[in-house]
Amino acid sequence: METVRSLGLAVGRNQTLDVYNQEAALVAELQAGSEAAFTYLLAVYQNPVFNLIAHILGNDADAADVLQDVFMKVFKGVRQFHGDSRLKTWIYRIAVHEASNHRRSWLRRRLREVFSLDGGSPGMAMCPVEWQGNGNTPYHMLEQSERHQLVKRALASLVEPYKTVVVLREIEDMTYEEIAVLLGIAEGTVKSRLMRGRELLRRKLAGVLGR
């Protein structure tokens, strides 16, 4: 499919306009039910959306389940997408909503399992980090892995609404404007939540990493 293949090509002086035009063409093909367009959409957004959900939930296994729900809603709802925002913003909004719903449901279940035998606590289940051979000693690699896990846990333990804003800004590198549109709040609110979230995260890391 020429339109979809062309979306991965570099653009020239009118890059911004071309990107919007190409996105509109992709949306049109998605709404027409093009399998190639859906395949392209998954190739582009599956990993970023998974990472977003995983950072919100702090659990890769749960993130994989939520990811399926997100793209089911994307596929079913794309015909109601009218271009009021960027396609990425629309998809991320669905992802944040689904992740938040999943976390609320998880917390409700945990309240009914106060005396569970596993002794777990919210946001602490993490998948091991894969490290590539880089000359580090096993001890150094273990130390880095443990510090990485501590940072992930600190981020996962941030309370809402601060955590989502921190993830979108610091992990997803979204602008204040993009976050405001995605969450349906004012840019000033984004900035204040980000400032508070960063401070909370700094305090958590200072306690566990000695910073």
Throw out a few tags for this protein.
0% strand, 211 residues, Arc Repressor Mutant, subunit A, single chain, Rna Polymerase Sigma Factor, Chain: A
Description:
The chain contains nine helices and no strands. With 211 residues, the protein is mostly helical. Helix 3 packs antiparallel against helix 4 and helix 5 packs across helix 8.
Oligomer: single chain
CATH class of the largest domain: Mainly Alpha
Number of domains: 2
**Secondary-structure arrangement, i.e. CATH architecture of the largest domain:** Orthogonal Bundle
Classify the beta-strand content into a percent band: under 5%
Q: Under CATH, the topology of the largest domain is which?
A: Rna Polymerase Sigma Factor, Chain: A
Tertiary shape: globular
Mean pLDDT across residues: 76
User: CATH superfamily of the largest domain, called what?
Assistant: RNA polymerase sigma factor, region 2, helix turn helix motif
Which segments are poorly predicted (pLDDT under 50) over 5 or more consecutive residues? 5-13, 111-135
Distance between the termini: 52 Å
Largest sheet: none
Please outline the helices and strands:
Blueprint: H1 2-6, H2 15-31, H3 35-57, H4 60-77, H5 87-111, H6 138-156, H7 162-171, H8 176-183, H9 187-209
Helix pairs in contact: 3-4, 3-5, 4-5, 5-8, 6-9, 7-9, 8-9
